[in-house]
Design a protein that fits this description.
By secondary structure, this protein is mainly alpha-helical. The protein has ten helices and three strands, in the order ααααααβββαααα. The chain has a three-stranded antiparallel beta sheet. The structure holds manganese (II) ion. Manganese (II) ion binds next to helix 2.
């Protein structure tokens, strides 16, 4: 018996619905980030690299207990060993989604909010010294990874870096917190325009940071007591278990 066409079409539709994670849209045109980041890098970074993380994440969680979880919940519960495909691709999807949100062309950037300005002053004294700490974390990350500004469970700002697509939400990260700013230091983020000049890329991407979005993320992280206590309690449990 031949399957009616509509039934076959339904099978394909059901298959595409079964993939829960989707590539976000960039808030601005690929060309809007130039000259700091060229349009081709933006397009390849989003539509090839980030898309691959999304596709591979959907594939990796299919038929597992992670299939019904939110992205954040996956990061909070995935094991350190034996789930590399989920770890790399869930991290890749989370990290890039944050990265696109916090970047904006100069003309579209808003100012740093009052509470984040105060917190930066308390922890780093000036924005310029914060920049130095982040650059140092980004420069000293060997190979591929990320530099982060995060809110610790205790409510302090801290700069950390992570390898590959790991991030401070993951339950096995040594230093945990809620990332509010992330800088991608994979070569795919800058190689077309900057080749091996990571320092030049960092200077350029720093000028694209939209501090009003980072401030919103800071305020949201501060009031997210549920996530902060979960980040804290996992650490305590780990210590107890040692
Ligand atoms: Mn990337």
């Amino acid at each position: 018996m031949r399957l009616p066409f509509f039934f076959i079409a339904l099978l394909f539709a059901a298959d595409s619905i079964a993939q829960p994670f989707m590539l976000p849209k960039l808030p601005y045109a690929y060309t809007a980030y130039a000259p700091n980041i060229d349009a081709q890098t933006m397009e390849i970074h989003l539509t090839k690299h980030h898309q691959a993380y999304v596709n591979n994440l959907n594939k990796a969680i299919k038929g597992t207990a992670f299939e019904s979880l939110s992205l954040e919940e996956i990061l909070l519960t995935l094991p350190a060993n034996g789930a590399d495909a989920i770890r790399n691709n869930a991290g890749g999807h989370y990290n890039h989604s944050l990265f696109w949100e916090i970047l904006a062309p100069k003309s579209n950037q808003g100012p740093c909010g009052e509470s984040l300005t105060e917190a930066i002053k308390a922890s780093f004294s000036t924005v310029d010294s914060l920049k130095k700490v982040i650059f140092s974390a980004a420069m000293s990350r060997f190979g591929s990874g990320w530099a982060w500004l995060m809110l610790t469970p205790n409510g302090e700002l801290r700069v950390v870096s992570s390898a590959n697509q790991d991030n401070p939400i993951m339950n096995f990260s040594v230093e945990r917190g809620i990332p509010i700013l992330g800088i991608d230091v994979w070569e795919h983020a800058y190689y077309l325009n900057y080749q091996n000049r990571r320092a030049d890329y960092l200077t350029a991407v720093w000028d694209l940071v939209n501090w009003s979005v980072v401030s919103q993320k800071y305020d949201a992280a501060k009031s997210n007591t549920n996530l902060r206590s979960r980040l804290n309690s996992t650490k305590k449990n780990k210590k107890k278990g040692q």
